[in-house]
Amino acid sequence: MADLLELDDICAGYGRIEALSGVSLRVPEGGIVALLGANGAGKTTTLNVVSGIVAPTRGEVRLAGRSLRGLGSDAIVAAGISQVPEGREIFRDMSVHENLVIGAHARRDKAGIARDIEVMTGYFPILAKRFRQMAGTMSGGEQQMLLIARALMARPKLLLLDEPSLGLSPLLVQQIFDIIVRLHRDEKLTLLIVEQNAAVALAVSDYAYILENGEVVAKGPSAVLAADDSLRAAYLGA
Ligand SMILES: Nc1ncnc2c1ncn2[C@@H]1O[C@H](COP(=O)(O)OP(=O)(O)OP(=O)(O)O)[C@@H](O)[C@H]1O
Ligand SMILES: [Mg+2]
């Protein structure tokens, strides 16, 4: 399958701190790729380079063969990439409905937006129940679902998920990943998922990369990495 996303030799950092030192990775169209690694490995920075929040100092990001160099965050969303940020940055004083509408701010097709709100509340029924509730009063799991639904309101080809399982109970993590798998299958969504929960991420992904200190130290089909005990012990704390 053709690669939807390509990162070639990406270096990036914050001032004099180098967070990524030559990261290359591929996400095939229609695939689910996991990006794993310990705290500080550079996972969020990698996603932020793709979404245009952090400018790389070297290397290139391509979407469907087209370089994203010089594009700002809005242009990258318009090109088809949405990010679900780490740490639940919802609009707390706005309702669930208003948060979903904001996710579609770059779109002009009113009827399509209304239809997609229906689609999203179909995938995440709890959001229908909480439709007029202030987002800040919802539980952590509900907020995570809202964040994913909000990112999808932009109708991305590629969804970047940053630690969707963070701070959630195993049951909720399973629920959220079940929905992610359905979205992938039914909406033909391509996914790049950052996780510290390696077991869950390897179970749903086709292929995975492991980052350490800003470098890819291992990569391979997820089933192969999941079966490699020494790798899991060395990098994945399991
Ligand atoms: N805004 C920032 N300013 C300075 N340094 C930063 C900033 N954000 C990240 N870093 C540094 O860059 C490196 C990579 O951080 P990054 O957030 O990408 O890691 P991560 O793999 O997402 O970690 P975590 O699992 O804790 O979310 C770390 O050394 C971190 O301290
Ligand atoms: Mg992170």
From TrEMBL:
<keyword id="KW-0067">ATP-binding</keyword>
<keyword id="KW-0813">Transport</keyword>
<protein>
    <submittedName>
        <fullName>Leucine/isoleucine/valine transporter ATP-binding subunit</fullName>
    </submittedName>
</protein>
<dbReference type="Pfam" id="PF00005">
    <property type="entry name" value="ABC_tran"/>
</dbReference>
<dbReference type="GO" id="GO:0016887">
    <property type="term" value="F:ATP hydrolysis activity"/>
</dbReference>
<dbReference type="GO" id="GO:0015658">
    <property type="term" value="F:branched-chain amino acid transmembrane transporter activity"/>
</dbReference>
<dbReference type="InterPro" id="IPR052156">
    <property type="entry name" value="BCAA_Transport_ATP-bd_LivF"/>
</dbReference>
<keyword id="KW-0029">Amino-acid transport</keyword>
<comment type="similarity">
    <text>Belongs to the ABC transporter superfamily.</text>
</comment>
<dbReference type="InterPro" id="IPR027417">
    <property type="entry name" value="P-loop_NTPase"/>
</dbReference>
<dbReference type="GO" id="GO:0005524">
    <property type="term" value="F:ATP binding"/>
</dbReference>
<dbReference type="InterPro" id="IPR003593">
    <property type="entry name" value="AAA+_ATPase"/>
</dbReference>
<dbReference type="InterPro" id="IPR017871">
    <property type="entry name" value="ABC_transporter-like_CS"/>
</dbReference>
<feature type="domain" description="ABC transporter">
    <location>
        <begin position="5"/>
        <end position="238"/>
    </location>
</feature>
<dbReference type="InterPro" id="IPR003439">
    <property type="entry name" value="ABC_transporter-like_ATP-bd"/>
</dbReference>
<dbReference type="GO" id="GO:0015807">
    <property type="term" value="P:L-amino acid transport"/>
</dbReference>
<keyword id="KW-0547">Nucleotide-binding</keyword>
